[in-house]
Amino acid sequence: MAELIDGKVVAESVVEKVKQLTAELTSRHGVTPGLAVVIVGEDPASQVYVSSKGKKAKECGFNSFQHTLDASTSEETLLKLIGDLNADSSVHGILVQLPLPDHIDAGKIIQAIAPEKDVDGFHFINVGKLGTGELDTAFVPCTPAGSMLLIERVRGKDLSGLNAVVVGRSNIVGKPMANLLLAANCTVTIAHSRTKDLPGLCRTADILVAAVGRPEMIKCDWVKPGATVIDVGINRIPAPEKGEGKSRLVGDVDFAGAEKAAGAITPVPGGVGPMTIALLMANTLVSASRAAG
Ligand code: GUN
Questions:
Q1: Which domains are delineated in the chain?
Q2: pLDDT at res. 81
């Protein structure tokens, strides 16, 4: 049976370090990290994520600024808010929760965030820095950065020459994940909906990262024996066995099957999820430290 990679424990150790460094930054430089989180509309999942980000920020000793805007908010109003947050020296990190309502051009909003406050790492400047290996000054997207920490926990820091397969090519997870693995000298393949023989390709992976948003798609016999499996998926599926109208969370990996083949595997929930928030705190602290000089 695979080793279970406990994201809650690793995330807690990241958060403890952030708390300690924040206390030092505040006492030595008089700077308190500030994180502004913007949510537009009432998507229930987004509301849960945003409220946990705010809570965790306070727990770390940050100032947390939450901007809750009506679903009918215009692009112009949102751009004005971003401009104000860019100019506000008490704000070191700006996160606009995605998805945004259809009438707002998400790309335009993301590119309006000052790159030095883009703690999500979605601005072209940060994407470009990651792509060219400028990791010291880039903000790296939180979910892939957190996934890398989990991989390093089980495989150590030297991932040189390992075969990594990333299933999913999103800008938020798949592509930055592939870039991080490449920067760590893995041989990286990005698989997607048009990939031929996906099971066969997955079986070549020493490190398999699933980020497709399809419940339990990756099966036991897709996993190379001993592989490290990182499940980024969070899918809510009906669970009639728990009672009428009940649901449960599952990943993109068929956990019960894959844990028989994998060397180590992340659970859902409690794997990658907690890491995303922890890395958001770490990015915000880095931004505040840079601002303090
Ligand atoms: N929606 C889902 N994941 C994310 C994320 O990492 N950042 C933002 N801003 N929105 C998201």
A1: 30-113 (3.40.50.10860), 142-273 (3.40.50.720)
A2: 99
Return left, alpha or beta for 126; rule: phi > 0 is left, psi -120 to 50 is alpha, else beta: alpha
pLDDT digits (tens, 9 = 90+) for 90-137: 999 999 999 999 999 999 999 999 999 999 999 999 999 999 999 999
Best of 50, 97, 100, 113 to mutate for ligand 1, by most ligand atoms within 8 A of CB?
97
Residues forming beta bridges with residue 238, ordered by sequence position: 247
| Closest C-alpha residue for ligand 1 atom 3 | 98
Q: Are 217 and 202 in contact, with CB atoms under 8 Å apart?
A: no
Distance CA 6, CA 269 (A): 10
Atom of ligand 1 nearest to the CA of 99: 1
Whether 120 is a known active-site residue: answer yes
Does the Cβ of 284 fall within 6 Å of ligand 1?
no
The values of phi and psi at residue 232, to 5°, are: -90, -15
Whole-prediction pTM: 0.97
Contact 122, 94 (CB under 8 A): no
Q: What tokens appear for 291 in the block?
A: 């601002």
